[in-house]
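Why this split exists: single-chain examples teach little about how molecules sit against one another. For that reason, every record in the complexes split bundles all components of an assembly together and asks for one structure covering all of them. Below is a record exactly as it appears in the raw files.
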Amino acid sequence: MPADQPRAADNPFEEPDDIDEAALTAVLRTVPLGAAVLAGGAVALLVLAYLLIYLWIFLPRGVVG
Amino acid sequence: MSDRSHEIPERWILHTELLWAFGVGVLVAATISIIVFTALTRNINPPSNVERVDPKTLHLSGEFAEQNLGTVVAADGTVTARIIATQFMFAPHCIAVPQRRPVTLRFASPDVIHGILITGTNVNTMVVPGYVAQVHTEFTRTGELLMPCHEYCGLGHSEMWANVQVLPAAEVKPDRDGRVTCAQH
Amino acid sequence: MRNTERLCLAHLWLAFAAFVGAAVLGAWQMWVRSPLGAHTGTPGDYYMSVTAHGVAMAYVLSTFFIMGFGYFVAVTALNRPLPGKGWAWAGFVVGVIGVLMALVTIGLGKASVLYTFYPPLTASPWFYLGLVVVVLASWVWCVLMLVSLAAWKRENPGRPVPLAMFATVANAVLWLWTTVGLAVELFYQVLPAALGFVQTVDVGLSRTLFSWTLHAIVYFWLIPAYIAFYTMVPRAAGGRLYSDTMGRLTFIFFLIYSLPVGLHHLLMDPEHGNSFKFIQVLLTAFVAAPTVLTIFTIPASLEIAGRLRGGRGVFGWILALPWDRPMVLAAGLSFVMLFFGGLGGLINMAYGMNAMIHNTAWVTAHFHLIYGGTSVIMYFAIAYEIWPRLTGRQHQSLAPLRWQLWLWFVGMMVMTLPWHWLGLQGQWRRVANFNYDNPIIASWGPLVIVSLAGGLVLLASALLFVRNLAVLHRSVLPAPTRSLYALAVDPPRRVPAALNGFGLWNVLVLVVMLLAYGFPIAQFVVAPSPSAIVHRTE
Amino acid sequence: MAEPSEPRAVDRLWRIWPSVAVVAIVLTGALLGILIIPVVQGRSAGIDAFTAICRALGILPGSPASPQIPNRNPPTPVSQVVWTPSVLQILAEAKPERGRAKVQEVCTACHGEQGVSVSPEFPNLAGQSGTAIYKQLNDYHTGSRTNPLMTDIAKALDGSTIADVAAYYAGQPMRNPNPYTLGAPDAIVQLVELGDPNRNIPPCAACHRQGAGGPIDAPVLAEQRQEYLTSQLKMFASGQRRNDVYGRMRAIAAKLTDSEIDGLAAYYRAGLR
C-alpha cells in the first residue's frame, strides 16, 4: 500500500493538464454550439414525445379527475 | 493558481448558460402549460377526494354494505360504482360501466393499502384505509378490461383482480333499483 | 491518500457485495414472473426476494457507495487528512450491523413488506431497527463531511471550495434533510406498531412522511453520478469543465428542489387535495433544472475535449472523444439512459397523466433507467477510476471494463424499454405469478421474456463488474499518478459566498418545505385520519 | 445583471435572487393550484368558488370538478365484530384461567379439554388464534352465524368471557406434523401455496398461515377436523354460512370444485405450522 506522504496525485490545484491555452481559446470560439445542438435536440425531442403521449395516448383514454 | 488571461471572459460562458436555461425553460413551461390547460378546460386532475371513513367499521356502514356494491344508475342518470378492495379480492368481482357517460367510481379498503388501475383507461387510484378513493371518468372504448390491485397488500396480492365490462349505451339495463350487473358469458 | 484507503474500500466492497447479491435476486425475479418461470417459488419467496432486492440496492449499495466515495473525495479533493477517522470506522461497523439486522430478518421471511414498507402491513421490529441503524451510520458520515469542509474553510479562508467536495457536502446536507421524513415515520408510527406498543397506524400520515424521503433519496443516489460528470469526466476526456459556477448551481438546485416534491409519488392518493399535488408538480418541473443545466454543461465540456482532439463540424467532436476510456464511455451511456429515464419521469410527474401509468411497469422502467442506469453505471465508472488510487494497482487492460459497461447498458435498455410499453398496457407491479391464462396478460408474455433476457445480461454484467474489481487487487501494474479532478475552463478565483457554503440554502429549503409540505402534514396533526389496524407479517 | 465590483454586493445579490425565485415559484403554484384551477373547474360543475377551493385543499371531501354523490343505503352488516384497539385490548388482557372454568363447564363436551374435538364435525380449537375464536363466538352471539348448538351457548356469554375462552384455547398447544411429510397431491399444495390466479383464488397460506399478514381474524387451519372443514367450505359455497365480511370465503369456496374441497380438508387435517 502506498506510504502516507502526499503525492502529486493528491493535490488537485497544482495540476496543470497538458492543454495549451491557445488551442483552448481557439476551441472555445465554437464550443457550446455542438453541445447546444445535441442537448437542445434531445430536450426538444423529449418535450415533443411528452406532448404526443399526452395528446395521442393519455387524452383518448378518457378524462380523469 | 496559474493565472491566465484569455479573451473569453467568464461572463460570456455564464451568458450562454443563462441563454440555454431560458431556452429549455420555455420548453419545460410547455409541459406545464398543457397540464394547466387541460385542467382548466377538461377538468383533468389526479383523483383526489379527502373523504374520511373508518376502515374498522366500514363493513357496518350503509354505503359500503355488501348489497350496495357494484354499479347503480341513479334517478338523475348519474352512474356510481362502489367497490371494496379487501385482502385479496374486490367486491364485486365484475363491474359493469356504460360507455361515453360520466361515471364515478368509489373505492374503500377495510384493512391495508390497495390500489387499482383499469387496463387501457385513465382510471387509477390508491385505496388507502381511512379514505374513500373517488375517480370521476368516462370510458371511451367498450370491452372486457382488467382491474388488478397494483399496490402490494400481502401474499395474495397477485390473485387480487376484478373484471370491468364497458358496455355500449344500449346494453346498459338497470334493474328496478338501478343496479347494473355484468353480462355473464 | 493519507491511509483512508482501507476505510473507502471497506465501504465500497460492502456496497458492491450487496449489489451483486441483489442483482442475482433481480434476475431470479425476472425469471419467476415470466411465462418461462411461471409457478416457480411461492409468493412468500418472491416478496422476500423483492424486499431484499430493494433494500440491498436502495439502502445498502447506495448509502455505502456514497459514504465510501465521500471519504475518498474529502481526502483527495481537499488534500487533507479525514478528521475523526475513528468515528468513520465506528459508523461503518454500526452500518454493517444495521445491514445484517435488516437482511437477516428479511431472509427469515419476517419482513416481506418490500423496501418501501406499506403500513398497516408491519414486519418484525428488527427489520425497521436495522434500517434505523443504517441511517444513523450515514448520519455519522454526514457530520464528518461537514466537519472536514469547515476545517478546510478555516485553513483556506475566502478560497472556493473544490467542486467535488462542494457537491459531496451538498449531498450530505440533502441526506440530513431527506431522512427527517423517514425517521419521524419510523420512530413515531412504524416502530411503535412493530414493537406492539400500538395496534393502529395513521396510514395517510405515514405515506406522506415517507413521500418526504422517497423523492429526495433518489437525488441522494443520483448526485455521485453528477459529481463524476462535473469533476471526473472532463479530465478523463482530456478537456476542461465548461463552467464551474453551473456545477455549483446544479448541486444547489438539487438540494432545494428535490425535497419539496415528494407528493408526486402520492398523486393517486385520496388523502391529499389537488392544490398541493399541483404545487408539488410545479416544483417537480424545477427539479429538472439541474439536469437541464448538466446536459448542456457536460456535453460542452466534452466538446472542448473532442475539438482539442481534432473533432470537426457540429458533431465531429463526438467521434473524436476517447471512448476507450471507461469514464468517458460510462458518461455517454449514462446520458442515453438519462434520456429515456427522463421521458419516463416527465410522464410520471404530469399531474393528471400520472393516472395513466401509476404503479405500472412504466414506473419500474423509469427508476431502473435513472437509478439502475444513469447512477449505477457511473458508480461503476467511479469505482474503476478510484480503485487504482485505493489499491495502488492499475487495471491490466481496459477491455473487460468496457465490456462490462456495454453489457450493463444493453441489458438495462433491453429490460426497461419493453416495460414502458407494458406499463401503458396496464401491467401492474409486484406480481408474484402472472395469470398467463388471461388474454390481456398473455399478450404481455413475449415482451416479458424480452425483458428477462435484458435481466440476464444485467446479471452477467454485475458478475463481470465484481470480477474486474477483484482482479485489480492482484494486478502487478503500479497505479498511474495522473490526476483525477477536472479543471474548469476558467478556474474560480473568488466564488460568491452563496456558492461556497450552504447557510442560505438551508434556510431556503426550510422555507420551501414549510410552504410545500406544511399543510399536507399539518392536516394529519389537526385531524388525524381514521386509524387502520396493524397487520403483522412476522 | 450588472456585476457590482465589490464582493459583498455580489454576495448580497446571490442571496436575494435565488430566494425571490424560489418563493415566486411556490407562490405561482399556490396561485394556480389553490385559486385558479379549482375555481374554474368548480364553475364548470356548478360548484361555488369557496367549496371548490376547500375541496381542492382537502378540507371538504369531493373533487372541485364534480358534484359529490349522496348515499342513503341502509347498513346490512354480515358481522358485528369490529377490530378496534379496545377490543384487541380486551383480548390481550383476557385471563385463560377464567376461560378454563367456562370451558370445563360448557365447551369440553364437544371441543375437548385441550381443544381436540370429540367428533369429526366439531372443529379443533387447540392453538387456534384468539381473534378467530373471538370473532366466531361473537358472530354466534349476535346471530350473524347460526348453529343449533352454538347459538344458545354463545348468547349466554358476554364479551370478556368470550375473550377468556378464546385466550384459553389459543394457549393450548397445537400438534401439527408438517404436511409435506404426509404427501398431499401437488394440485392441493399449489392451491395452498400459490392459489389460482386465473380463478381469482389467493393462496390459502396468504391468510391462514400464522403471521401471513392477512386479515387478523383469519383462523389458523393447522390440524383441523376434515369433515368440519368440508362442511364449512360447502356452507360458504352455498351461502348458508355468510358471516365472512364482504364474502371473501363465499367467493373462494364457490369457485372450488368438490375434489379440491376434500383435498384441502385432508391437507389441513394433517396440519401446517
